[in-house]
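Figure 2 data, in text form.
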Amino acid sequence: MPEAEEGARDASTANGVVLRRAGGADARDAADVWLRSFAAALPGVVRPHSDDAVRAWFRDVVVPRQETWVAEAGGDSGVVGVMVLDDDMLEQLYLDPDWRGRGLGDRFVALAKERRPRGLSLWTFQVNRPAHRFYERHGFVAAEYTDGGGNEEREPDVRYVWRP
């Protein structure tokens, strides 16, 4: 089945926000959500790449090569969230700061579990306590802590795992 048809089949709507598969035209908006969310949630974490490099990464790697989903709100809001799955990894889950606390993260995690029913894992920074609480609330368990030597930011992180 072509991706556009699959995305249409898998799209879900609640409260005027549609979760759907991202296409090439969504790459910049998804990257911009990532940039705004990272800046708001992790102000003390140094990003190793420029805004333009992040946008190019979404355009050339993330959207075309990984299972990328966006949350699209009506009106002028456009793309307000992005989730990326790669094998059993929940690689990215970022929401526009103005859209946090509206259930979009919950919907994305439910979708991720539906798409990967055998289990998921993810990495988040140790300083991101709100993310820890969020993932733990969704049944993820901390499985590994590192000193950050394995990530580009060199920021201590934690790997979470969810198994059904």
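Caption note: The helical segments are 3-10, 27-41, 51-65, 104-115, 129-137.
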